[in-house]
Amino acid sequence: MTDFDPGDHEIAELGPAIKDIDNVAELEEILQKEHRGENRAGAIALIESRIEKFSEDDEEPADADGLDLSEMSAADVGNALQGIDDISDLESLLEREESGEDRGSVKRLIQNRIDSVQGSDEEAAEAEIDERPPEERHPDLDHPTRDKRHVRALRGGVYRDMWVYCETQAGELIDVSKEMLGKARQLMDQYNDDYDEQERVVAVLIGDDVSKHVEDVVAYGADVVVVREDDRLGRFQHKAYTEIFCDMARAGASHDGGEVTGGRDEDWRDYDKPRYVLFPATNNGRDLSALVQGELDSGLASDCSGLYITEEVISNPVKTGVAGEKKEFERILHMKRPDFSGFEYSTILCIDNPTREFHPQGASVIPGSFDVPDPDPAREGLVVEHDAPLDDDWFPVTVTDFDQLDEGIDLTGHDVIVAVGRGIGDDPTRGIELAQELAGQFDDAEIGVTRGIVTGSYQFDGHVEQYTHEDRQIGETGQIVAPKLYIAAGISGAVQHKVGMDESDTIVSINTDPNARIRDFSDYFIEGDLFEVLPRLTEALKEGQLGEAIASDGGDTAAEGGDTR
Fold this sequence. Notes:
Elements: H1 11-18, H2 24-36, H3 41-55, H4 74-81, H5 87-99, H6 104-124, H7 134-137, H8 149-152, E1 159-165, E2 168-169, E3 172-173, H9 175-195, E4 201-207, H10 214-219, E5 224-229, H11 238-250, E6 273-280, H12 283-295, E7 300-304, E8 306-314, H13 317-320, E9 327-338, E10 345-348, E11 361-365, E12 382-385, E13 416-420, H14 428-439, E14 445-449, H15 451-455, E15 485-489, H16 495-501, E16 506-511, E17 524-527, H17 530-543, H18 546-552
Parallel strand pairs: 1-4, 1-6, 4-5, 5-12, 6-11, 7-11, 13-14, 13-15, 15-16, 16-17
Antiparallel strand pairs: 2-3, 8-9, 9-10
Helix pairs in contact: 1-3, 2-3, 4-6, 5-6, 11-12, 14-17, 17-18
């Protein structure tokens, strides 16, 4: 019996913690502990991949002669075929099926297995691979990446550090930049422990008068700050920012096995490109991340809300180079993001091919996904001034005059959000007033609305109309928030809205429909009319008895009593 408890480890720590355990029985026991404990999907996948890796060597090859195809379904045959690698055995099975049941689906399965095994043998013989870039293999096509041969040529390159693009708006360092620095610090501290390395967090500041933020980004976790200032960079411009960032990323290239035009000596670094890079999932951050990763010939996972680094076992022949074989890839950044459904999450991986390397592994991060760390003013960091020449062609647009629009309401960063949806339709103005009264009981609360309120034909009195505009919309096409407490009143829980608030610490929903979709992802669900429930919650907050109010209104689980302010 093992003493190892997976519940003692975060998912990001679990992979390195079990990497030296190769006893299948022990791993099975750890898996059962996870199932009985926190039952985390990511942890289960990590343990199962480890079990699968060491189970393969112990498996007895399938006995083709012992298979009675007439008694087996197509699915049964497909499973049995995975353990048969002998071509003659497979051909014998195909002949037996043709002379027996003669099922087309089964014959296709056997033939596919034959093709797969034969393909593995051919690749094992190291058949010649055409590694020329696409523009050389297809000279008749117009390739926009024609000028990136020095990037594509990298194989066996050197990659180090995690880079963080620290965005500023109106001269100020935005919160998501601080969140990413804190997360990057956490990831790289763990990385250095796991792999016995000394890789760093590198902050990137681009703009006009951004040097004033150097001390801040170091305090939030950066080891190195690469700065580029120019009065032409006061406003975000796609071409200029992309070229500058990519020049920073390629500078100091040490690779000598491919073309490194664009690289130059840099005293502070000795690698070709960053290992990892993070961008904010803001309007400008989304633009820049896609352009930079495309220019660096790598991949991007957009709008992520979770990150961790560990090993991953992959069987995809595009990645392993050999069909039917598995390969363990190390130091992979696992980038978790909500699916388009809004109800599931996917983990995106950026993994090398046998003939190509994809670095940096890149992600854009949804604001509010991580906590803003406490700054450490005693931290010290290296400051690098980027001084490569800027091409005038990078600045095709010059802003000569502009009007400052009302910046609207920023709902991110508040402790509490009270959001209302179509359920206020019976008395729209009163519904907003009730939300105001409830929000007023908290020290740091704001009011949000769904898209249905913004685009609907509701009539609001003038004194509440400001709360119904697009700048307060929460969801896929609005703001993405992650408060400590999210109160959803009269909101059905459409996918588009869920994406905007699913990372909230605690979700309390109020709806007359007991089967409303929002119930599935709420911590507390109150079945009732918001026009009756909201006043009672407001009164309960005044008296410090919120838990009792939720329970009496039909919540699935009673919150603890006491003053929640």
